[in-house]
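PROTEIN DATA CARD
Card holder: Phosphatidylglycerol lysyltransferase domain-containing protein
Chain length: 472
Origin: Candidatus Mycolicibacterium alkanivorans
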Amino acid sequence: MTEPPVQVAPRLRARERVVAHVDSPAARWMGALALLIAASWLVTLLARSHHHANWHADGRLAWSLTILAAVALIARGIFLGRPVTAAHAGVAALAVLAGFGAHILAFGVLGNFLIASSGLALMWPTTMRPQPAELPKIWALVNGTSRDPLAPFAMLDRKSYHFTADGSAAIAYRTRIGYAVVSGDPIGDETRFEELVCEFVAMCHGHGWRVVVLGCSERRLGLWSGPEIIGQALRPVPIGRDVVIDVPTFAMVGRRFRNLRQAVQRTHNFGITTEIVAEQELDDQQLAELTDVLLASPKGSRTERGFSMSLDGALTGRYPGILLIIARDRDGRVAGFHRYALAGGGSDVTLDVPWRRRGAPNGIDERLSVDMITAMRQSGAQRLSLAFAAFPEIFDDKERGPLSSFFYTAIHLGDSLIALEALYRYLRKFHALGDRRYVLLSFGQVLPVLVVLLLLEFLPRRRQLPGVTASE
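Structure generated from the sequence above:
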């Protein structure tokens, strides 16, 4: 009998070695006591200062505030359970030495700032490095996961993973400034999800990370609401709905599909044809043509964004299970293409990113989606996810009150990154709004969590483009 695989953490660099664990009642008591002593010293000094006319010039007050700030930052890190690494200790020591050096050179304010910041450096949150080498294991779990449109996006190579001991299920996540942001639902064997979540939360607690879940499905909310979620009460905030086509029964019949039929017919009138090819099987000519379309697209050709609901590496062939459906005009020129990801052994298909050439006929996206649904029906797929409809209730509301109007305006401020209303108008033609998705977070941490989520989803990174283009 073979032994089950043991989960092995990524090998730590020397500077990442933990030199002190503070996740214990004794450490918390020591932190609280140190904070109390520093605060009492400051109060005593302030009380004595009333008897001295020149107390403002007394350097003891500034020094007391510096020590109090450093101790408060250390105590905060202790109460959050953040471990101290060799790198943290080294940077903190350098900050203290630099602070004393600044005092010697008569830069007192700078010296105080450096010494106070040593407490922040000592308890700075650790991070988990991405684990792209785990892609074969993650793909196997994705290929075994059905009824989850976001499952393929677990493969994004900027993510880290937490597996069950036997590797039968995993959580994809990424760490940012003390938060572990989970991407969607767990993947793999769903009978192990409850155990997996408990182990993941315990692991995060040991690192001093607070948990946030981005894109949790309605049916998995219960995984994150148990008493095992130590020290946090995660509250669900709805952010939108999946748009999932029931492939075997889909038909563009009836008045409500009139706009969709008209858009598709328009492309037929223009002589548009489509073909499907696996991304990893593109030949040089196809790769060159598609790269030109990507570069000629209205936006996003040189950079890419996304965390929970997209993949990177378009046209690189990095990920398995990726299909492209390509639209060509009468002259055989590529007018646009969609990138789809498979899951559940082919039972589930999810749209990643659509691309179109400037000046391509209207209706290209609708035509590509409809033809992909038809092709996937023939291959036995059950569900096809077109995209994620964010905040559909706001766009459907015809009589917006002050609060709805505020959110509607705020959403449109981000149109340069993603035009959510235009995307919703496209998705609405398919009449396939599905289950809700949620962000799970602690309400007391809304502002820092919002910053972390915006950075993960919208911070641009340079796109890795294939080396061949048709123009070369």
